[in-house]
Write a structure and sequence with these properties.
Largest sheet: 8 strands, mixed
Radius of gyration: 29 Å
Shape: elongated
Structural class: alpha+beta
CATH superfamily of the largest domain: Mu homology domain, subdomain B
Number of strands: 8
Strand content: 25-35%
Number of domains: 2
CATH topology of the largest domain: Immunoglobulin-like
């Protein structure tokens, strides 16, 4: 006695009330999650980038003893002199006003015997931002202030200092209780990795999802194996929803230095 084996309905799982209920719950939970994520992104985010070319412009070991380098006060400069360019801006989407600064913002170099000279190269909307650089609380610090720092507004400035090849650079201060300043290069690497990793995950997961669904539809899997495969397919379906929303969030992050 022969009979034709009936292929299972590929949409059978999708028609089950339990699946529909889980799908509705996932969407209901996901939508507020995305909304509150964007709501939480209403932040002030002071960000800086140290440009790659840190130049030694005076090598004290190679100069003739008959030559002396003087600063603007005609004081002899002892040690190697370096030049560095810095960008500082607000990569958040809420303006940073002077009233928000609870502790002065300072640019720090360490090790650094002293800062010889400094100047502002470029600013966003100079009449509005009104950036000012002044000597800081120590010889290796500069005080940075402004009148208004809107989203993507910033300043580019240069510093000449007596230091060495291992000198490090950072900002310190306090803005509405937060004392962390974002290293732009590190943040950019994380965003680029996320933008690359999530789509690849979506593609691989999608291939697994449709491959498992095809095997179930063709009747290639039997018994407990088929039941397990169906559970995996349902799990991957919800994973795809979550990954897609995550990808949407990552793609929405705009990060670009102002200069």
């Amino acid at each position: 006695m022969s009979y034709n084996k009936r292929k299972p309905d590929r949409f059978n799982d999708l028609k089950k009330p339990s699946f529909i209920i889980m799908l509705v719950i996932t969407i209901i939970v996901a939508i507020p999650g995305v909304f509150f994520f964007f709501k939480s992104r209403q932040i002030q985010r002071p960000t800086y980038i140290i440009e790659d070319e840190i130049t030694k412009i005076y090598d004290s070991q190679r100069m003739s003893p008959k030559l002396t380098l003087l600063d603007k006060n005609k004081k002899a400069i002892e040690g190697d002199v370096y030049h560095v360019i810095i960008q500082f801006w607000n990569s958040g989407n809420v303006s940073i006003e002077p009233k928000d600064i609870w502790k002065p913002i300072e640019f720090i170099i360490d090790p650094c015997e002293r800062i010889i000279d400094y100047s502002i190269i470029k600013t966003s909307d100079p009449e509005t931002t009104d950036f000012v650089l002044l000597p800081g609380s120590s010889p290796n610090a500069l005080l940075l202030s402004w009148n208004h720092l809107a989203k993507n507004y910033g300043v580019k400035f240069q510093v000449f200092f007596v230091g060495n090849d291992n000198s490090k650079f950072w900002f310190r201060g306090n803005i509405q209780g937060r004392s962390d300043f974002v290293n732009g290069k590190s943040l950019l690497k994380r965003i680029k990795f996320g933008r690359l990793f999530i789509p690849i995950t979506l593609i691989v997961t999608g291939i697994v999802y449709f491959a498992a669904g095809f095997l179930i539809y063709e009747g290639k899997l039997l018994g407990k194996v088929e039941n397990l495969a169906r559970k995996i397919v349902r799990f991957i379906f919800f994973l795809l929803i979550v990954a897609s929303l995550t990808n949407l969030v990552l793609q929405s992050i705009s990060f670009k230095p102002p200069f």
